[in-house]
Automatic annotation (TrEMBL):
<dbReference type="InterPro" id="IPR011703">
    <property type="entry name" value="ATPase_AAA-3"/>
</dbReference>
<feature type="domain" description="ATPase AAA-3">
    <location>
        <begin position="54"/>
        <end position="184"/>
    </location>
</feature>
<dbReference type="InterPro" id="IPR041628">
    <property type="entry name" value="ChlI/MoxR_AAA_lid"/>
</dbReference>
<dbReference type="Pfam" id="PF17863">
    <property type="entry name" value="AAA_lid_2"/>
</dbReference>
<dbReference type="Pfam" id="PF07726">
    <property type="entry name" value="AAA_3"/>
</dbReference>
<dbReference type="InterPro" id="IPR027417">
    <property type="entry name" value="P-loop_NTPase"/>
</dbReference>
<dbReference type="InterPro" id="IPR050764">
    <property type="entry name" value="CbbQ/NirQ/NorQ/GpvN"/>
</dbReference>
<feature type="domain" description="ChlI/MoxR AAA lid">
    <location>
        <begin position="260"/>
        <end position="327"/>
    </location>
</feature>
<protein>
    <submittedName>
        <fullName>MoxR family ATPase</fullName>
    </submittedName>
</protein>
Length: 334
């Protein structure tokens, strides 16, 4: 599977990644003290953190979305802020504003809640486009301009935005171009019955374990750098590009039946994020190289919000996930 490249010593790289990723198990265990089940959500949070991306979570209320990112921030001793998106929210409520200070007869800057390591944007689709774009600009540029002063945002910087798929009245759906800024879109399912029994018991007791700091922000920064070193063979790169190009030109990949169902395919951000997420997944699995299974493990989260479906697809009840399944099953695995 892995051709040992002359310039890449896989065994020493493997040792390095195993060393650098040792904290992943400790961090996951710590978060799991309060998060029962939801293994995939916790894993995706770590992928977003290590890949320096952002996550869009879709799920009904009460699935521990807020608790998950709050627990992560406590476990790495990062700053956490929560922004409840509402129709009357203003961009200044997110990024901050200039306030006139009578004492000094001048304006001073009041920073908004975006200035934190971990930001929860709760029900992002409840706020108008102006507010959404203020947040998304900060996510993309990793900086904020208030007045004529530009501030770099704290590192690491992770935004987790949530969407409620049930109540769509009075909401402002995120435009496709803006949804593309999220590295992953994860759909959260209900817990299993046994898991929910544990959740009920813990809540009735009121006995939740305290989250301790088990990782430093410096370790996270080192891990983010190490993720970039994870080896990706040219065959895996080609596999990723085949998947992306099949969303744009399905007819070239024996998938003519998808042509009328796809409005637009994944952008180059899709290729970059699929490669990055696959590297992060390999890192979490404590491996110094990417295998096709890593790509397949993250492909739905990276692409489900990047494929536009046509009215014809909607009429036939075909989702972007159905399209991804057909593509992944058709493309030859290296």
């Amino acid at each position: 599977m892995i051709e040992n490249n002359a310039s890449v010593d896989i065994s020493s790289l493997n040792e390095k990644i195993e060393r650098e990723s040792a904290f992943v198990d400790v961090l996951t265990r710590e978060i799991n003290k309060v998060i029962v089940g939801q293994k995939e959500m916790v894993e995706r949070l770590l992928i977003g953190l290590l890949g320096q991306g952002h996550i869009l979570l879709e799920g009904v209320p009460g699935l521990a979305k807020t608790l998950a990112i709050n627990s992560l921030s406590q476990a790495v001793a990062g700053s956490f802020s929560r922004i409840q998106f509402t129709p009357d929210l203003l961009p200044a409520d997110v990024v901050g504003t200039m306030i006139y200070n009578m004492k000094v007869n001048d304006f001073s800057i009041k920073k908004g809640p975006i200035f934190a390591n971990f930001v929860l944007a709760d029900e992002i689709n409840r706020a108008p486009a102006k507010v959404q774009s203020a947040l998304l600009e900060a996510m993309q540029e990793k900086q904020v301009t208030i007045g004529d002063t530009t501030f770099k945002l704290d590192r690491p910087f992770l935004v987790m935005a949530t969407q409620n798929p049930v109540e769509q009245e009075g909401t402002y759906p995120l435009p496709e171009a803006q949804v593309d800024r999220f590295m992953l879109k994860t759909v959260i399912k209900y817990p299993q019955m046994a898991e929910e029994q544990l959740i009920v018991r813990a809540n009735l007791k009121g006995a939740f374990d305290k989250i301790n700091q088990v990782v430093t922000l410096e370790q996270i920064s080192r891990a983010q750098a190490a993720v970039r070193e994870v080896y990706m063979d040219e065959k895996i790169e080609k596999y990723i590009l085949d998947i992306i190009f099949a969303t744009r030109f399905p007819e070239k990949y024996n998938l003519e039946e998808l042509k009328p169902l796809i409005n637009f395919g994944a952008s180059p951000r899709g290729s970059i994020n699929l490669a990055t997420a696959a590297k992060c997944y390999a890192f979490i699995k404590r491996r110094g190289y990417v295998i096709p299974e890593d790509v397949r493990a993250v492909v739905y989260d990276v692409l489900r919000h990047r494929i536009g479906i046509t009215y014809e697809a909607e009429a036939e009840n075909v989702t972007s996930e159905d399209i991804i399944s057909k593509i992944v099953n058709e493309i030859e695995v290296p």
